[in-house]
Amino acid sequence: MHEVEPGVTYLFVGILVVMVLTLALEEKIHAKKSIITGTAAVVALFLGVAFHLLPLEKYVIDFGGGHVRHLPAYIPGVEWEVIAIILGCSLFVDVSSKSGMYSWVAIKLTRLSGGDPVKLLFFYGLMTVGFSALLNNVAAMLIVGSLTKVSLDRLGRQKLLLGFLITEGLLTNIGGLLTLISSVPNIIVGKAADIAFGTFFVLAAPYVVVATIITILMGAAIFKIKPLANEEEKETARELVSGFNAADTITSRGFFFFSGAMFILFVLVLSTTSLLPIVRELGMGFVAMFFGLVLLLRFKNTADRKYAALDWDLLGFFLTLFIVIDVMEHAGVLKLLGGGIADLIGVGEVSGAGLLLVASAVTSSVTDNIPLAAVLANILSTLEIDKASNLWWCVIFGANLGGNFTPIGSASTVVAVTLMHKADLKVSFMGFVKAALPFATVHVVLAVVYVLFVLPWLQGLMT
Asked: Is the CB of residue 315 less than 8 Å from the CB of residue 38?
């Protein structure tokens, strides 16, 4: 990328700021997210080409034999894997739900909890973290969010749904820290720092465990999700859940068992995608689309109804947001942010690392954490930072946890807000920020303490 004039870079910073502020006022201006980011994408693309920022000469694919394809400027910047995962998972969840499988699982968990909301929050919280670590945080949010609504509807506690969904949405980014392959920033930074899979898990797991427990307890306290107070309430709840018959939710036993088998296979294939020949080349997006299509064959004559049920605003939002971030990268906005963050490293070994983590989190709350992680990993490599330095972990924790500050900070928090809107829970951009800020602040403060003081001690034990 050629050097960009500072004035041009600041112009695009202004576009990014305006887009974020407009998203914050989404409810007041009565505009869908996809329209806001779509408008920003059109403006950014126009100016990006006008200022010769986009490497259009590289957007050409030569298949040989005179077969050349010129890609439109808005195609290369889109994270198509994420789009495919959202589309495939949405189809899979929607179609498989018709079998009664999710209702069946939700009722089983509800009965296991004895009707106690706090126990139910722990069950779903742990499930969210596990699914986020093994699958993908988007898939985790879609599946767990669907189960949660069923459980609370059956218990007649629909008012608690908002607290459950916000807590689960935040936990997806906690779960994304558990393994080297749980999120793309982990892979990018882990590869640059030569962190082995086992080492990553051992060093990240203590934080994930503590942060998960704290988040669930905070969720219960902030959203007033209270345990059953006395024996009378417990007995009433037991009588209520004893009347729940999971078998009543099964509409077709054949489709139920088929959906269950596909779900288990879906989880296994997603969690081992990087290990499977051929499939690893196609990626998680292909896996999600494949399983969505397999279940869709059950309704092949009415597939158009399933397409109509998809959240096209969500897909449009991500498509156009990726375009905006891609142009911002070529305009030098991410380099500007990354350079500012890099300056923090020179403040001091401890304070510099802490500031790097916080700055990474704040920056990733309004930009895509994937290119941010790539920029920062490149900066650390250029500075020849030692592979054992905790600066690498500052970027990993910051890039993942920044998604908890805003509803656009990560794909899973966007999905969580979408599920809230589907349930007629009106949550604005600032409403989410206000609710999530205490959690995100605790997550980042805890991460700073962990990375600066606990993690070096653990590394010492392993050497």
From this structure: no
Alpha carbons 279 and 282: distance in angstroms, whole number: 5
Q: pLDDT by residue (tens digit) across 276-319?
A: 899 888 887 888 899 989 988 888 887 888 787 777 887 888 78
The residue with greater pLDDT, 17 or 225, is: 225
346 contacts: CB under 8 Å, gap ≥ 6? 352
CA dist 401 and 332 (Å) reads: 24
Domain parsing of the chain, residue ranges: 80-181+243-312
pLDDT of 267 above 80: no
**Looking at beta carbons, which pairs linking 28-37 to residues 24 or more positions away fall under 8 Å?**
28/428, 32/313, 32/316, 32/317, 33/313, 33/314, 33/316, 33/317, 33/408, 33/414, 34/312, 34/313, 34/314, 34/315, 34/316, 34/317, 34/319, 34/320, 37/316, 37/317, 37/320, 37/321, 37/324
Query: Residue 152 is which amino acid?
Result: L
Whether the CB-CB separation of 413 and 169 falls below 8 Å is answered with yes
How many helices and strands in the chain, by DSSP H and E?
A: 22, 2
Instruction: Look at residue 27 in the predicted model and tell me its pLDDT.
Output: 67
CA angle (19, 22, 26) in 5-degree steps: 135
Residues in a beta bridge with 61: 69
On the 0-12 / 13-18 / 19+ scale of CB atoms within 10 A, 457 is exposed
H-helix or E-strand containing 69?
Answer: strand 68-70
The secondary structure of 322-358 as a DSSP string is HHHHHHHHHTTHHHHHHHHHHHHHTT-HHHHHHHHHH
Q: What pLDDT digit, counting tens, does each position of 115-165 carry?
A: 899 999 999 999 899 888 876 687 788 888 988 998 898 888 999 999 999
